[in-house]
Design brief:
Layout lengths: L5 E7 L12 E6 L5 H9 L17 E6 L3 E5 L10 H17 L3 E9 L6 H12 L4 E6 L6 H15 L9 E3 L8 H16 L1
Parallel strand pairs: 2-4, 2-5, 5-6, 6-7
Antiparallel strand pairs: 1-3, 3-4
Length: about 200
């Protein structure tokens, strides 16, 4: 699937301000500095659709984009380290969790993980919360181009083994790079198939 049109709609301070839930919606979230904006720009073939920054924690609102007039892509604030107060980080998480629990057209949430690092507690806790709330999610490992093929395979195997300590089975998983487009077609094809199933 090739994205031919991607447009920013609005930024919202809460789920109540989000656009009407009339299209299938796919949320993207991850720890600060995971490469979320770069991945979104690569998925949509628009270099500046999502704003990238050298300062982690820049995304602080729920950002909606409409893709090919057919589905919503939602860019959620990052969690974990950010140059904001603890109270502000808690406010972000409350906003994010309320959105995820109440958005009726949300098809799946993509949780982005930097494949270069060991499993982080806030990633694992967030996915545990998604599972507890029965919110469907998939994992996208980012920055795969930063590792050799051998190290990439080893890091993914280690991460999946850690997940299987608490999960009976793994969620859908993708390995990606915004730099060389690794995994981009697979992610878009997955979204396309989900869109078809929602319509059916």
């Amino acid at each position: 699937m090739l994205v031919r049109k991607a447009e920013f709609i609005k930024s919202s301070k809460s789920h109540a301000e989000c656009p009407p839930p009339k299209k299938p919606e796919y949320a993207f979230i991850g720890r600060s500095n995971v490469g979320k904006s770069s991945l979104i720009n690569t998925l949509t073939n628009k270099k500046s659709l999502a704003k990238t920054s050298a300062r982690p924690g820049k995304t602080q609102l729920i950002n909606h984009f409409v893709i090919d007039d057919n589905w919503y892509l939602t860019d959620l604030p990052g969690y974990g380290w950010a140059r904001v107060s603890r109270d502000k980080r808690m406010s972000f998480m409350d906003m994010i969790k309320t959105y995820l629990e109440t958005r009726p057209n949300l098809v799946i949430t993509f949780v982005l993980i930097d494949v270069r690092h060991n499993a982080q507690s806030n990633d694992l806790e967030f996915m545990q919360w998604l599972g507890f709330k029965q919110i469907p999610f998939a994992i996208i490992f980012t920055k795969a181009d930063k590792l050799s093929p051998t190290q990439l395979e080893a890091n993914i195997a280690t991460y999946e083994a850690k997940l299987l300590e608490d999960w009976a089975e793994l969620p859908p998983t993708f390995v990606s790079s915004a730099h060389n487009r690794m995994g981009i077609d697979s992610i878009l094809h997955y979204i396309h198939n989900l869109n078809q199933s929602v319509k059916d």
